[in-house]
Amino acid sequence: MSAPREQFSSKAGFIMAAAGSAVGLGNIWGFPTQTATNGGGAFVLVYFILAFMLAYPALMAELIIGRHARANVFTALRGIATGPFTRKLGSLIGGYGVIVASFILSFYAIIAGWMLAFMVEPVALMLGFPSVAEWLTTFSLERNIITAALFMGLTMAIIASGIENGIEKWSSRLMPMLLSLLLALIIYVLNQDGAMEGLRVYLSPDLSRINPPLILDALGQAFFSLSLGVGTMLIYGSYLSREESLPKLGAWVTLVDCGIAFIAGLLIIPAIYVAQAHGTQVFTEAGDLIAGPDLIFQVLPSLFNSMGSIGPVVGLTFFVLMSVAAVTSSISMLEVPVSLVSEETRASRPQATLIIGALIFCASTVTLLNFDVMFGLIIDITTVYSQPLLGLGLCVFAGWIWHRDNLLKEIQAGHPDIADSWFWKIWPTYVRFFCPLLILAAFGQSLVG
Ligand code: PHE
Fold first, then answer.
1. Is the full-model pTM beyond 0.90?
2. Phi, psi at residue 70, to the nearest 5°?
3. 224 CA distance to ligand 1 centroid (A)?
4. How many CB atoms within 10 Å of residue 212?
5. Pocket test for ligand 1, best of 47, 107, 223, 224 (most atoms within 8 A of CB)
6. How confident is the model over 110-130, as pLDDT tens digits?
């Protein structure tokens, strides 16, 4: 007889793990810089509306399918299929989701490796190793490969330990740490010159900036941030007990994800203006804000350097925060292929982790060897194109293919009066019509744009 399937030990454990997956570089880096380049508060407003109106229903589709099927995304979609065609479609969407999750991890590990390098730099300086510090913060193939390998190793160690002892334990430890670091940094930055100007830009929405591209950017950001489409939330849902109310847990995860994104904005956007007050160039010659890697790896470090003796401490804290956010997300990406291999083959979890982790690290290495061509391309193919399309596929499965009675039965477990609730009145229509249509609109826009 096979061992019973592992589960999260508690509601809080699940929320920590799922919120840990959602809260990542997408929140602390992506959301604030998208906000800064998209008219400040207007983007925040649109993002929150879309997160609750569209990303939350899509998240629910994944959680419900996952808990019902108690399996990885590939097996789950094949399992709820109703005939040979939908079974093939399930294999296609599930298989593609596993591949996309793996490729997201392959570039995420590279970026997270940089976070580790910048985290160790102030320590190297404090210990009197300036050449090591220089090596850590200079872009080179060796540094990139070594730091990505370290980060992958960390992710693999947690995943090899399983659900309760790996994912749940580490998410529950690291998420409170992430919030404390974030709050400490905000208190510090808001007391610096220039911070209030940043706060004003962040919190006063210029509604005239709301236009279709902004709305679609916000939608893409919401899907990435809630880890949707690739089977991450589906596999986490599969480790949930039938005693829990899925709509409530999903709402918590969405709330925490939005809350941390909002709080991260309170740090990053004022910090950009503080850097400007310190004489760092934060706008390009064309007048756009320096976003992307340059913001994180140049603007902010030069701000930390200009802060005097406290600078290295602030810098260290910031990059610990980024690394923590990255690892609670990367474990959820690795869980997608590892769950498939360990459920469908005879490989044990540690063996599956080792094989898949090594393969994904090879993909990272190939990307690093062809950085200029591949890095941006893989990010675009996986997050801009594939994630929304896969999200669409999952909504079609939940809304059109899966029998409505089974769907209702699954949500009723842990929430017996759901049939009378507003959730059941609205949600099925949402996943059937609104979610697919809006995702299609976003996809069309990204193709045209
Ligand atoms: N949500 C994570 C972030 O915001 C990224 C992620 C995408 C995680 C897809 C898992 C799956 O950084």
1. yes
2. 50, 45
3. 5
4. 11
5. 224
6. 999 999 999 999 999 999 999
